[in-house]
Amino acid sequence: MLDGPFGGEEVFDDVIDTVYFVKDAEGRYVFANETLVKRCGLSEKSDLLGKTAAEVFPSPLGDDFEGQDQTILSGGLPIRSQLELHIYPDGGQGWCLTWKRPLRGKDGKVTGLSGISRDVGGVISSPKDLESLAVVMTYVRSHLDEPLRLSDLAEATGLSTYQISQRMEGLLGLTPKQYISRCRIDAACHMLGAGGDSLSEIALACGFSDQSSFTRQFGRMVGMTPKVYRDEKRG
Predict the structure, then answer these.
(1) 235: pLDDT confidence band, cut at 50, 70 and 90?
(2) Domain assignment present for 1
(3) Is residue 112 over pLDDT 90?
(4) In the chain, N or C terminus with fewer CB closer than 10 Å?
């Protein structure tokens, strides 16, 4: 038996390149690791807990983080490997890959969220390279209902197709085509879980040419058909 609630932050306390947190239904910190505490210029976890991102981080960064939280808490799409520039209250800054997902109770309702932000380093270290790649990734997520050919990304962002491929594979280990497919499937999973839209509507909204191609690719990547996935989510 545990002597208290386990939020997992102990596992991340010694991982200095990764921020970890859990927030409640109001977006307030419930658990956080030591890395986040130190980067916020605070002394103890208790100085952070109970506060929202907007109360901890400088504006407009804190407002942006809180907006992300509220979108997820209200049923929006989870964040997966989103490239962001973080500017901390203590003056430090750095590029991170961020993941955020909702936490749900037994009744299926969102009760909070959890997330991590991992420092970016190694293959891609130039701030300019990272900034341009962030533009590419944001463009993809904002245009999932479009064809999204590599040449289109290059034209929209001012990078060459080689630069996009090199930087994305160096950071994520994914080709641009694989990244686009993953974003499409992530969006489809969210829409299937939310309910309301037909399979054909979801297919078009996520950039698939028709429902049959959506079903084939979803099955390959998820291991079940969209209908079975939706049925399992609905319980």
Answers:
(1) low
(2) no
(3) yes
(4) N
